[in-house]
Write a structure and sequence with these properties.
212 residues, alpha+beta, Ubiquitin-like (UB roll), 2 domains, 25% helix, 16% strand, globular, 2Fe-2S_ferredoxin-like_sf
Length: 212
């Protein structure tokens, strides 16, 4: 059975024409899964992680869907985990403890040095964290969830680039961060982070290509 509905004017750029689209139920579900990719364009700059999550939960149609071929589909695919940076050697008495909770709920505790980021720590210890973009803040596959709000508040504010990639993250929460952007320090000693149940291998370049 096919569904027919108009695309909201607010979801279109000022130069895009109004039109109605007829797509299948499967296509509808598929397109909605990508609707969060344009939330940063449709929402005001947020000042807190809470407003970011609320903004990302609103529904709008991605601009590339409006201007492109509605029949175009993207599929999820798995890629081999690429190894990135190396871990430093902590100085005696300056070891920083970090705990990862994996998808099965098992806790993994490591002692690391100041400046080590969560992506490198996870990969060096064979935890399931992909980091498809090489730790360049251009994907969301190193998404982690900070368990304690107090530790989250101790971190530096996420950059605009990180916020853009977090919009693509699966199971986004108010304390979500990208592992490649969180570096261990004295203030984060004892940090506990949880790996999400799944990740989306969508990169910034995917959407840059759509604009050409």
């Amino acid at each position: 059975m096919a569904l027919q509905f108009p695309v909201a004017r607010s979801a279109l750029s000022t130069s895009a024409p109004r039109f109605s689209a007829v797509i299948s139920v499967r296509q509808t579900q598929h397109l909605r899964s990508y609707s969060r990719t344009t939330q940063r364009r449709n929402c005001d700059r947020w000042s807190s992680s809470s407003s970011r999550v609320q903004c990302a939960q609103r529904v709008s149609w991605p601009r590339w869907v409006v201007s492109g071929n509605l029949a175009t589909r993207r599929t999820f695919s798995s890629t081999s985990v690429a190894r990135h940076g190396h871990l430093g050697t902590p100085k005696p008495g300056e070891e920083r403890k970090v705990i990862f909770i994996d998808k099965e709920g098992e806790r993994h505790t490591f002692e690391v040095a100041d400046g080590d980021n969560l992506l490198d720590i996870a990969q060096a210890n064979d935890l399931e964290m992909e980091g498809a973009c090489g730790g360049s803040c251009a994907c969301s596959t190193c998404h982690v969830i900070v368990e304690d709000q107090d530790y989250y508040d101790r971190m530096e504010e996420p950059s605009d680039d990180e916020n853009d990639m977090l919009d693509l993250a699966f199971a986004l929460t108010e304390t979500s961060r990208l592992g490649c952007q969180v570096k261990m320090s004295k203030e984060l000693d004892g940090l506990v982070v949880k790996l999400p149940p799944a990740t989306r291998n969508l990169q910034a370049s995917d959407f840059a290509d759509k604009k050409k």
